[in-house]
Amino acid sequence: MKSDLNFNPLAEKYQTTDQLPYRKYMEHWVYRKVLEELEPCSSLDLACGAGFYSGLLLEMGFTPVTGVDCSADMISLARAHFADKKNIKFIESRIEDFHPETPFNVITAGWLLNYCEDTLHLEQLCTHLKSLLSSEGTMIITVDCQGEYGCHEITDNVCAKIYHTHPLKDGESFRMTLPVNPPLDIYAVHFDKATIIQAMNNAGFSKVEWLPLSLDPKGIEKLGEESWQQMINKPRIGFLKVAH
């Protein structure tokens, strides 16, 4: 199995992952710090799911917000969750089939790259992403880096459980269990950081950088600094900041 591209059967359960500590206190925090440096404008949230990043964009004034996801059930959840909000809409579409009339100045993309089938698909997707971003725009992408480690190297409990015993090669799929109730199994595809950078460069992006990990102080206060230490020492997620 390559990846769970069909999220319809998982939508209700996957929505609960928004409350996992690393999502609340690391993902949102890193994105917020980048967005604080940008001028509010229209924004696009790719692989939006139930609206985890869409809500942050709305909160911070990057409106109107457009969320795009290939899962009909995810889009239904997002529409229901934001039914009383203005300046936000959700579109069911494969990312590759989404062709807006004008590009966006701000794009967020959570975990999108880890659902590419292989390096060719990764290259093609990065080329399409460039067409969606305006010439002066900024894109923030969350990447799953758990394939860089084997399960014996990981002892923290703030992220997912993994099962592969050795670091993975580009295009290898892997299983992880997200610690929600009940636990949720997801399959994703690993790509080396250098491979992702190369794909972005080949697509023509002028600036591609990995952002340093940082934590919302509320997360440290809630779980303690020690709980986050291995997550920082052996990052299991990465954040890319990309410019046209």
From TrEMBL:
It comes from the Bacteria. GO terms for molecular function: methyltransferase activity. Pfam families: Methyltransf_25. SUPFAM superfamilies: S-adenosyl-L-methionine-dependent methyltransferases (SSF53335). InterPro entries: Methyltransf_25, SAM-dependent_MTases_sf. GO terms for biological process: methylation. The keyword Transferase applies. Residues 44-135 form the Methyltransferase domain. Keywords: Methyltransferase, Transferase. The keyword Transport does not apply. This is Methyltransferase domain-containing protein.
